[in-house]
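[step 3/7] fold_predict: job queued, chain A
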Amino acid sequence: MNHHALKTVQPFYNDVEQYLKTFEVRANDRNYSVGDILTLQEFPYTGRELKKEVGYVLSHDDFPQGLKEGYVVLGLIDIPCTQDTDSIGHHSILPRERYISGLSK
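[step 4/7] structure written:
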């Protein structure tokens, strides 16, 4: 699993945020894979960002008549989280990776 920080321009950033757009079309210059984590940063930079997991990768090899060579369509899914309670009862949301690593301790 790799982590990628990607610039995302409007209106596409808002569309992803509002679940109207559940995919990204990108040059495959980073060898994207299922399970990779994308940090979509609103561009021009505002400080807003979204984290998504790559749930599906469609490449030119899969669909040569519809996708230019060197490009991929990335299916975006929410990163599963769980709730955790600290010693005084405060709830927090933990990313799946931190939750799973906490189980192994």
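[step 5/7] annotate
The first strand starts at residue 3 and ends at 9.
The domain at 3-80 is CATH 2.30.130.30 (Archaeosine Trna-guanine Transglycosylase; Chain: A, domain 4).
exit 0
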